[in-house]
């Protein structure tokens, strides 16, 4: 008989061992339930220098990306330019864009404008021609405004009226000469306007409303 008091069992050690194993499993399962899925494993030892450097670089990249996203496009561009100058050297004047070839909408319209648009002119339309055509469609093509400043050379300039001139009556209820505002004794004229456009000779019948003095200028060579 082993033990004290005269009581003992051959299975006492096994039962205590099984109970301790079950207790350990239960505690491990409970610990596993307490661990959150996004929780990082605690570092028991001091991290290696390379691991610490990689983690630091990752955190710096995350902060840099956050600041870049928070910037607008112009501020981001300025930062990149300044970083490039600090790293490679140079001056800010080297990054200034040349404005020699810049064009406004008015310049594009002047380059692609046509007095009369025909069907063959609407072939192969790029954005410059479309802009000029859009401006042309907004003009009023009943009466013309005339430039008679070079009438002695038999040279005349004609253009269509825009909205403000139609509202004010310029070219219909007042003289169509751009330097004359006479409103009395106006006469209507139909003129064969011959002009050269993009190396091509063209003709167009246009209508004018002129005062007697400007009518004499218009028919100066005819008389």
Automatic annotation (TrEMBL):
<dbReference type="InterPro" id="IPR050645">
    <property type="entry name" value="Histidine_acid_phosphatase"/>
</dbReference>
<feature type="region of interest" description="Disordered">
    <location>
        <begin position="1"/>
        <end position="32"/>
    </location>
</feature>
<dbReference type="InterPro" id="IPR019129">
    <property type="entry name" value="Folate-sensitive_fs_Fra10Ac1"/>
</dbReference>
<dbReference type="GO" id="GO:0000398">
    <property type="term" value="P:mRNA splicing, via spliceosome"/>
</dbReference>
<feature type="compositionally biased region" description="Basic and acidic residues">
    <location>
        <begin position="17"/>
        <end position="29"/>
    </location>
</feature>
<dbReference type="GO" id="GO:0005634">
    <property type="term" value="C:nucleus"/>
</dbReference>
<dbReference type="Pfam" id="PF09725">
    <property type="entry name" value="Fra10Ac1"/>
</dbReference>
<protein>
    <submittedName>
        <fullName>FRA10A associated CGG repeat 1</fullName>
    </submittedName>
</protein>
<dbReference type="GO" id="GO:0016791">
    <property type="term" value="F:phosphatase activity"/>
</dbReference>
């Amino acid at each position: 008989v082993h033990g004290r008091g005269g009581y003992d069992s051959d299975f006492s050690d096994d039962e205590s061992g099984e109970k301790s194993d079950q207790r350990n499993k239960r505690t491990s399962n409970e610990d596993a339930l307490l661990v959150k899925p996004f929780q990082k494993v605690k570092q028991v030892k001091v991290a290696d220098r390379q691991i610490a450097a990689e983690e630091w670089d990752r955190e710096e990249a995350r902060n840099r990306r956050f600041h870049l996203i928070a910037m607008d496009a112009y501020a981001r561009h300025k930062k990149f330019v300044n970083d490039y100058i600090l790293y490679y050297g140079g001056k800010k004047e080297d990054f200034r864009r040349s404005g020699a070839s810049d064009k406004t909408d008015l310049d594009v319209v002047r380059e692609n404008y046509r007095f009369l648009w025909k069907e063959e002119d609407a072939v192969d339309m790029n954005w410059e021609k479309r802009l000029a055509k859009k401006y042309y469609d907004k003009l009023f093509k009943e009466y013309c405004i005339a430039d008679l400043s070079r009438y002695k050379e038999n040279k005349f300039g004609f253009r269509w009226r825009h909205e403000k001139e139609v509202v004010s009556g310029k070219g219909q209820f007042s003289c169509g000469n751009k330097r004359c505002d006479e409103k009395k004794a106006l006469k209507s004229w139909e003129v064969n306007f011959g002009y050269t456009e993009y190396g091509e000779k063209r003709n167009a019948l246009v209508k004018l409303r002129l005062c007697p003095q400007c009518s004499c200028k218009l028919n100066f060579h005819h008389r």
